Amino acid sequence: MTGYVMFRKDRLGRRGGGVILYIKESIQAYEIKLEKEAECEEAVWCNIVTGNSTLTVGLVYRSPNISMEENEKIHNAIKEVSKRDCIIMGDFNHGHIQWTSLQSTGREDQEFLKLVQDSFLSQHVLEATRGENVLDIVLSSQKEFVDNVKICEPLGCSDHNQIHFIIKVKAERNRKIRYRKNFHKGRYKDMRNI
Fold first, then answer.
1. From the first residue on, what is the mean pLDDT of each consecutive set of 10 residues in the chain (194 residues)?
2. DSSP assignment of 16-45, as one string?
3. Which distant-in-sequence residues (6+ apart) come within 8 Å of 170 by Cβ?
4. Which GO terms describe its molecular function (predicted)?
5. Whole-model pTM?
């Protein structure tokens, strides 16, 4: 997409899939790698420069038939990233969590809900994103980071609704270096003698 920097991680060994995150090219951002035990197959992480600090932004896809090992890596990634200012978003496929009452059924959903609570993360999506379920969520380390969450119609042939929201953090803009000639320091007398 023109005007954006792309961060992506393709699904390995199969056609299609993976995650892709676009950030405006005017915002300073760079991709980061997490610890080996937190390096997920389908997740991408980057830091956005925000004045004197950074905001870690992550995009995660958690398959409904995920292996225990990969599920543990996602949990480790959330634990690692939640220790700093962060926004984590994606399709986590935890459809049995009632985010308004913070209740869940099923062992995996309960473990995930406990992880979110123990990591002191706020979950901002309270309406269904696919059918009757809230599968796509936005987590943040500070509630004020995310504002104006709207659930919109699916894009293209997707069966998931879009989530629009505002990140309320002042990011540093990329500064383009301009070189200008300093004409008032020219040695014009010497040039005339040539």
1. 91 79 91 91 92 90 92 95 95 88 85 95 90 90 93 87 88 62 69 75
2. S-EEEEEEETTB-EEE----GGG--TTEEE
3. 50, 51
4. catalytic activity
5. 0.83
